[in-house]
Amino acid sequence: MVDGLLPYAPAVTGVVLLAVLLIGYAAGRATGRWTALVAGIVVIVAVGVVLTAVGGPPTEDPAAELTALYTITLPLLIAYVAGWLVVKGGWLRRFLVIAIGALLLVAFPYAAAGQATADALLRCDRGDAPLTTPVPRRPRRDSVVHVLTALHSPIVLAPMAGGSTTPELATAVSEAGGFGFLAGGYLDAATLGAAVSAVRARTARPFGVNLFLPGERRDAGVAAYRERLVAAGLEPGEPVWDDDGYPDKLALLLADPVPLVSFTFGCPDPEAVSRLHAVGTQVLATVTTPQEARQAVGAGVDGLVVQGMEAGAHRGVFDNDPADPAGGQQYGLLALLRLVAATTDLPLVATGGIVDGAGVAAVLAAGAVAAQLGTAFLACPEAGTKPAHRAALADPDAPATAITRAFTGRPARGIRNSFLDDHTAAAPAATHRCTT
Questions:
Q1: Rounded to an integer, what distance in angstroms lies between the CA atom of residue 307 and that of residue 305?
Q2: pLDDT for the residue 79
């Protein structure tokens, strides 16, 4: 509705400024006292402070707050003082004041309208619209948007299970102005609770926790695959299926809430989403296809982590399709962002193959509110990355990556090595962890 009023912005702003000018003139005529002028200025500044506080999303940037206050109050102050001085001065001063007031009434409204039009163009999220037509972004759910757009940098730490994402790394990302995430996968509730406490002890900034959703148990091919690994001279552990301690970890986060909880490997049930909402937690779901996005929206989540096929480590597919080596249909990140944005108004966090500022800018332009990076953080000193993994990431001649089920039974992108090459074709689609 606000964007629909955009063509009338100059007239509305002009009327407001003219009214303030006339109020200043009337105050000068009625009292003639300088105290009334000062009182009017104080009132205008107070109104500007209130409008700045309630008129937009919260921000931790004092410079942005001052800029907004300046934009609101300056033209009102000029109009009020100009109206006052018309009464207090001679004909020359009155002429100058009227000229300045007229310039203000004409120039500022059109400048404001021009800025509003530019903002609308920058918010444009329809790729099929001509650049000359401002198409506003659909309204997003404020809670998640405010958390992510209030960041100094639109960067989210990917929750990498298995030890890479440490409390120290999550803290460092949040303290640097991004959004830190803890990986709850493979941890029991007590260990996850200790990690949450460790982050809270290090930073007052917001962070989130990711949980794995338990998948359907699949035994087909698992025993034979283990025998294959033993025959190859390896020492795999016993095949294990469990729910990853999901009920206990969910109970932990209900009792000790964090701002955001994200889910991977499925769609959270609406009851769990509602319970998290009841304790003030916003919910994200990881999706890899438009169909998964629609399912997650139906569950009542507050935002989507859109994962392209470029992503390292596990693909967050809802159903691990045994007939597909990648576990399901693959979409490049930018294409998937546009497809998902066409189906939902929820805020989108983009992830998959983003390693630099140009990649972040690309996904923001494609409709994301933030970019989630994982591999880019593995070389950080705070990360729990193993030395061999660090060396492989730093090697300019390192092998290419490939998607495999060889390690966990779930499709994941890893750096090619002899194990991946030798066993990918034989690995079953499972939810076991038979190589740990």
A1: 6
A2: 73
